[in-house]
Design brief:
The complex is a heterodimer of chains A (323) and B (50).
Chain A (H helix, E strand, L loop, with lengths): L15 H6 L3 H17 L6 H25 L1 H4 L17 H22 L2 H25 L3 H10 L1 H10 L4 H23 L2 H7 L4 H4 L2 H25 L4 H23 L22 H27 L9
Helix pairs in contact in A: 2-3, 2-8, 2-14, 3-5, 3-6, 3-8, 5-6, 6-7, 6-8, 7-9, 8-9, 9-12, 9-14, 12-13, 13-14
Chain B lengths: L7 H34 L9
C-alpha cells in the first residue's frame, strides 16, 4: 500500500524540536500574553511562583490543543502551503505520537493548574482544550464557514482562565477580555483567508471566502469590525481600562475601521488576487488591503492587552463610568 | 512497502536528544509539584498537630 502524502514518513528520525513544533509555539506565546493580562488585571494577591506556574499550565494546555489539532488535521495540513511543513504532514512525527502528546499534556496541565490554583481555572482550561480539539478541529472546521467565529471562543478564553487562577472567580470584566478576542477573530482570520482561500479550497475547508465568496466575506469583515471596535472601548467604561487604554483603543479602533473599510471597497480575494509563494505577507496588489488589516489586527490586539497590562502593573487610575 | 532507513548515527543522536528532553520534562514536573506543595503548605506546617 502506498502511503498518502499526509501519512508519508520522513527518512530523518524525529528530533525533540519537532515535538516542540507540535505545540505551535507562536500561538502559545499569544496565549501566555493574554492569560498574564487576565491574571494581572484581576488585581488579586497571588503568590508570584503560583502565578507563574498557573501561566505555564495554561501555555501547556494550549500546546496540548495544538498537538490534537496537528494530529487530526494532518490530511488537510498536507494540502496547504502554510501548513504542509508541520511535523505530522511532513512525516517528521507520527500522528499517534502527536495524539499521545496531546492527551498527556492535557492531563498534566489541567491537574497541575487545579492543584496550584483552583478547580474553576482548571475546569475552564479543560473546557478550552476540549472546545479547540473536538468542537473546532473535529467538527466545525470541516463543516461550516462559521468555523472560526464559534471556534474563536477557544482562543478567547485564556484571559478568563488567568483571571480565575488569581481569584477563583470569573467576573464580567474577565468575560469582557474574552469578548474582545472573540469579536477580533473573524475580521482577523477572514482578512487572512481572503488571500489564502485557494489553499483552503484545495484542502476542502469551508472558509467564508470559499463558500460565500470574497465580496460577502469583505462585507462581513466590515460588520464584525463595526461591532468589535466599540467593544474595545467598553473596558474604559467599566473601570478595567484607564485613560491610556481609552486613547489607544479609540485611535487604534479608528485605524482598524479605516482598514476594514479599505478591504470592503477593495477586490481582495477575487481570482488572481492570492498571495505569492514567498510568505504570509507577500501578496498580490489586489489583496494588499486584506494583508494590511490582517497585520494591523495583530498589532491592535497586542496594544490593547499590553496597555491594560501596563496600567494595572503601574497602578494607573481608571476612568470607568460604571465602576 | 519499504520505509526509508535512517542513518544509525543520526538516529542515535536524535533518540538521545529526545530522551534528554523527556528526562528534563519529567524532572520539571517533579520540581513543579514539589514547589507547589511547599508554597501551598505555607511556613507553619511544622507546627500543625497530627
Amino acid at each position: 500500500m502506498a502511503m498518502s502524502p499526509a501519512l508519508s514518513r520522513s527518512s530523518a528520525p524525529p528530533r525533540w524540536q519537532d515535538y516542540v513544533q507540535l505545540l505551535k509555539p507562536r500561538v502559545m506565546s499569544l496565549v501566555i500574553f493574554t492569560a498574564i493580562t487576565g491574571l494581572v488585571c484581576a488585581n488579586a494577591p497571588i503568590n508570584p511562583v503560583l502565578g507563574a506556574i498557573a501561566i505555564f499550565c495554561i501555555a501547556v494546555g494550549a500546546g496540548a490543543s495544538a498537538a490534537f489539532n496537528m494530529w487530526y488535521d494532518a490530511d488537510i495540513d498536507a494540502k496547504m502551503r502554510r501548513t504542509r511543513g508541520r511535523p505530522v504532514p511532513a512525516g517528521k512525527v507520527q500522528g499517534a505520537d502527536a495524539l499521545a502528546m496531546g492527551v498527556v499534556l492535557s492531563l498534566f496541565s489541567v491537574m497541575l493548574l487545579g492543584m496550584t490554583t483552583n478547580w474553576l481555572a482548571a475546569g475552564l482550561l479543560a473546557f478550552t482544550i476540549f472546545f479547540y480539539a473536538v468542537v473546532y478541529t473535529m467538527w466545525l472546521k470541516r463543516s461550516t464557514p462559521q468555523n472560526i467565529v464559534i471556534g474563536g471562543l477557544a482562543g478567547a478564553l485564556p484571559p478568563v482562565i488567568g483571571w480565575a487562577a488569581a481569584t477563583g472567580t470569573a467576573p464580567l470584566n474577565a468575560w469582557l477580555l474574552c469578548a474582545i478576542i472573540f469579536m477580533w477573530t473573524p475580521p482577523h482570520f477572514w482578512a487572512l483567508s481572503l488571500y489564502t482561500s485557494e489553499d483552503y479550497q484545495k484542502a476542502g475547508v469551508p472558509m467564508m471566502p470559499v463558500t460565500a465568496g470574497a465580496a460577502s466575506t469583505r462585507k462581513q469583515i466590515l460588520i464584525y469590525s463595526l461591532l468589535f471596535v466599540p467593544l474595545c472601548i467598553v473596558p474604559a467604561l467599566t473601570g478595567l481600562g484607564g485613560l491610556t487604554y481609552l486613547v489607544v483603543a479609540a485611535l487604534g479602533g479608528l485605524m482598524f475601521l479605516f482598514l476594514a473599510w479599505r478591504v470592503f471597497k477593495s477586490r481582495a480575494g477575487e481570482t488572481g488576487g492570492q498571495r505569492n509563494d514567498d510568505g504570509l505577507y507577500d501578496v498580490k496588489a489586489s489583496s494588499k488591503d486584506a494583508r494590511n488589516l490582517f497585520a494591523f489586527s495583530i498589532l491592535y490586539l497586542t496594544l490593547l492587552f499590553a496597555t491594560l497590562l501596563a496600567e494595572h502593573l503601574l497602578d494607573l487610575p481608571a476612568v470607568g463610568v460604571f465602576s | 512497502m519499504s520505509e526509508p532507513t535512517p542513518d544509525p548515527t543520526v538516529e542515535a543522536r536524535a533518540r538521545r536528544g529526545r530522551n534528554i528532553a523527556l528526562a528534563l520534562g519529567l524532572v520539571l514536573f517533579v520540581v513543579l509539584v514539589f514547589v507547589v506543595t511547599v508554597v501551598r503548605l505555607g511556613g507553619s506546617v511544622g507546627q500543625r498537630p497530627f
